[in-house]
Design goal:
alpha+beta, OB fold (Dihydrolipoamide Acetyltransferase, E2P), Dihydrolipoamide Transferase, seven-stranded mixed β-sheet, 12 helices, globular
Length: 401
């Protein structure tokens, strides 16, 4: 089971594209694996024959566990692999009975009581979650490889501790179930909101020039790339180019230091079933508007189909989230750690505003910048926002670069 993203502990096998005994070539799709973020197609790393398939569709398997072998002619599956008990390292994803997740009978609890939490085998992600939820990890029996405590064990222990009775516990476990992508989104947004000192800047801007760019360049881009140019595409291009002048807004907070990122990679928040993902348009500052639109459309289609790749979701340095298509006037967004900022975009709508002392109707948009005060201060974020406003006022000056 490959590690497809940071902090991944397990992967759920969705389906095998190839079956045992099939001849396969390097680069062919072997199977589909679901992670916390997406369903990913796994390619064969070598030519050969698929053999000794140990895990089937629906199995949730710890990262690093052997799920099958690719054999060259004349090779056989190693004896230790054939004789190993795969069930010991393969977990079927289903609600866990309260008696099993509790852990721990009196002898086990007594043994745990004599140990320090530092001695407990637990993944870093699960330890962080336990700290956030106040779960005592010394009372939990891990279900991961070699007894390692996983995030599922922490969540199960929390559910059981909150339930007043066995019947209520079963009902609570059923009612509180979250799909993987929704659960991880809840964990990350909670962590971000609790750990990052957010501050917010708001601007009402004239979007007339954005509309003109879309109307003037849209037909040519649709003809050349077969995609419809959106306001989000234009904003990705503009924001990326402005970020080159404000490297701190493109930086990452690593826990102790500020890391200046060499590339400007824009994450675009997209709604999918059960949650939100942020696929990345890399090097958006040097990518043409037409190519940004084509890449964004490709990512949108893959996100909708649950086919995003690990590379689609990694490396983002700044995020844009647009709810204008849902008729939202304005909103404040939570920063995607370890990024330093996120730009929330509302709908473009006609409003009465003052221009040269006269009341006129103009297409206006409200933007809200959420920034990490550990990385930038208010003045630095305001200067960045002023340049964003200038780019939106005169987009042709920025898109020609």
């Amino acid at each position: 089971m490959p590690a497809l993203e940071m902090a991944q502990e397990t992967g759920k096998i969705v389906s095998w594209v190839k079956k045992e005994g099939d001849a396969i070539r390097k680069g062919e799709i072997l199977l589909e694996v679901e992670t916390d973020k997406a369903v990913v197609e796994i390619e064969a790393l070598a030519d050969g024959v698929l053999a000794a398939v140990k895990s089937q569709a629906g199995d949730v398997v710890p990262v690093g566990t052997t799920i099958a072998w690719i054999l060259k002619p004349g090779e056989t599956v190693p004896v230790e692999t054939v004789s190993a008990a795969p069930a010991a390292r393969t977990m079927t994803e289903q609600p866990r009975p309260a008696a099993a997740t509790a852990a721990t009978s009196a002898p086990a609890a007594a043994a745990a009581a004599g140990s320090s939490s530092d001695d407990v085998k637990i993944s870093p992600k699960a330890r962080r979650l336990a700290n956030e939820k106040g779960v005592d990890i010394t009372t939990i029996r891990g279900t991961g490889p070699d007894g390692v405590i996983t995030t599922d064990d922490i969540l199960a222990a929390e559910t059981q501790a909150a339930a007043p009775a066995p019947a209520a516990a079963a009902a609570s476990a059923s009612a509180s179930y979250l799909p993987a992508i929704a659960r991880i989104m809840a964990e990350r947004t909670t962590h971000s909101w609790n750990q990052i000192p957010h501050f917010f800047l708001v601007r009402d801007l004239d979007a007339g020039a954005l509309n003109e760019v879309r109307e003037s360049l849209g037909p040519a881009i649709q003809s050349a790339k077969g995609v419809k140019l959106t306001h989000t595409d234009i904003l990705v291009a503009l924001v990326a180019r402005v970020l080159t002048k404000h490297p701190k807004m493109n930086a990452s907070f690593t826990g102790k230091n500020i890391q200046m990122n060499a590339s400007v990679n824009i994450s675009v928040a997209m709604a999918v079933k059960d949650g939100v993902v942020g696929p990345v348009i890399p090097k958006a500052d040097t990518t043409s508007l037409a190519d940004i639109a084509a890449h964004r459309k490709e990512l949108t289609d893959r996100a909708r189909d649950g086919k995003l790749r690990p590379t689609d979701l990694t490396g983002g340095t700044f995020t844009i989230t647009n709810l204008g298509m849902y008729n939202i006037d304005s909103f404040s967004a939570i920063i995607v750690s370890p990024q330093a900022g996120i730009l929330a975009v509302g709908k473009i709508s006609d409003r009465v505003v003052a221009v040269n002392g006269q009341a006129v109707v103009r297409p206006m948009v409200t933007l809200t910048l959420s920034a990490d005060h550990r990385v930038v201060d208010g003045a630095q974020a305001a200067q960045f926002f002023n340049d964003i406003a200038e780019a939106i006022r005169t987009p042709a000056n920025f898109l020609s670069n």
